[in-house]
Design a protein that fits this description.
- This protein has helices at 62-76, 84-94, 99-117, 121-124, 144-156, 170-183, 200-209, 224-233, 247-256, 266-269, 272-284, 298-308, 357-360, and strands at residues 3-21, 26-40, 45-50, 133-139, 161-165, 189-193, 217-218, 238-240, 261-265, 288-292, 316-320, 342-343, 365-368.
- It is of the alpha/beta class.
- The chain folds into two domains: 3-118 and 356-368, Enolase-like, domain 1; 123-343, Enolase-like C-terminal domain (TIM Barrel, Alpha-Beta Barrel).
- The strands form two sheets. It has an eight-stranded parallel barrel.
- Helix 5 links the parallel strand 4 and strand 5.
- Helix 7 (200-209) packs across helix 8.
- The radius of gyration is 20 Å and the shape is globular.
């Protein structure tokens, strides 16, 4: 089997409401999504998606994905997509770095490999837990009142896990955390996501002022060096996601005890192939995990769910699904959807969901063998 063509689509995915990060420092309203279709000479077709969270969040953006695919396509054409390590090496040689551009190709190859084996991707990867995974909401708001309203909206949809965006103003963040904790329901999973929005002093101020609450903080500093400095000054549980990009990052976090949770974002780290290695480092060091796409449609959510299903139930805190945050559906209702605040692994071979090509519009690029 070999790859004979790669087709690329670009789609705008509007968010259902404006989304704020770092206390209003960053605002997002539409996501620039790239969908990739890989076709083989065996008649199998696989789909991948790459949807960074805007252009200003981290060093990843939609046009960069499409430029990266243009650079890598001729090195991938002709390869057997089932041999995902060969495809990974070809992409890494053709374009060092730029992991976010490689993720949709990796995803499409896993989709084909699963179809060829007659197994869901999670089963093919050696996991495949059928325990439904809690969906973590993503609450980006500027005020405590807005935060409460969005949490209640997600609760009405059955959500039991919430990622609350804070950062930028220590006193406001302390008040926000205390307010959320005052309405927190028994059994709810809550993560306070700073998105690199604190200085080291601000981090220690907020973490000390809320120490009685037992809160968990995600990315409380810009870099791993910042998080290491904060860790020396406070013992609050920490999750790392934006500084978890490469396997070396994962190894350092585990070795130096910088975090109790890995937030593995598949598009950021380069796809399932690379993310699986981070999962194994986490498991070897007793580190729990959240699994997420950086954003996107049900395709990206489903990819994250497959990785989550390879993690033992007690080590997987939640998955993040963006599908409830966007106002269009490119898959016509197909694929894993929110059911009582959880996602359930699809039983179909491969990814388990493909887009409606009519909803994607005309391709923006095609590369042929």
């Amino acid at each position: 089997m070999k790859i004979v063509d790669i087709t690329v689509h670009r789609v705008d995915l509007p968010l259902e409401r404006p989304y704020w990060l770092s206390g209003g420092r960053l605002k997002f309203e539409t996501l620039d999504a790239t969908f990739v279709k890989i076709r083989t000479d065996a008649g199998l077709t696989g789909w991948g998606e790459g949807t960074p969270w805007g252009h200003t969040y981290v060093p990843a953006h939609g046009p960069g994905i499409r430029a990266g695919i243009e650079t890598m396509a001729r090195f991938v054409l002709g390869l057997d997509p089932r041999r995902v390590l060969d495809v990974e090496r070809a992409m890494d040689l053709a374009l060092p770095g730029h992991l976010y551009a490689k993720s949709p190709i990796d995803m499409a190859c896993w989709d084909i490999a699963g179809q060829a084996a007659g197994m869901p991707i999670a089963d093919l990867m050696g996991g495949g837990s059928r325990t439904p995974r809690p969906i973590a909401s993503s609450v980006g708001a500027r005020t405590a009142e807005e935060t409460r309203g969005i949490i209640e909206d997600f609760r009405a949809r059955g959500y039991v896990a919430h990622s609350i965006k804070i950062g930028g103003d220590a006193e406001r963040d302390i008040a926000r955390i205390r307010d959320v904790e005052s309405i927190r329901l028994p059994g709810e999973i809550v993560l306070y996501d700073v998105n690199r929005g604190w200085t080291r002093r601000q981090a220690l101020r907020v973490m000390s002022a809320t120490a009685d609450l037992g809160a968990t903080f995600e990315q409380p500093g810009e870099t791993l060096d910042d998080i290491a400095a904060v860790r020396r000054g406070h013992s609050a549980p920490i999750s790392v996601d934006e500084s978890l990009v490469t396997l070396r990052d994962a190894a350092r976090i585990a070795r130096e005890g910088l975090a109790e949770i890995f937030g593995i974002k598949l598009n950021r780290v380069g796809g399932l192939t690379k993310a699986a290695r981070m999962r194994d480092i986490a498991l070897a060091h007793g580190i729990d995990m959240f699994v997420m796409a950086t954003g996107g449609s049900v395709l990206a959510d489903t990819e994250a769910l497959h990785l989550a299903a390879t993690i033992p139930d007690h080590n997987c805190r939640a998955v993040w699904a963006c599908q409830d945050m966007i106002s269009i559906d490119i898959a016509g209702g197909r694929g894993p959807r929110n059911a009582d605040g959880h996602l359930r692994l699809p039983g179909e071979p491969g990814l388990g969901v493909h887009p409606d090509e009519d909803a994607l519009g005309a391709p923006v690029a095609r590369y042929e063998l």
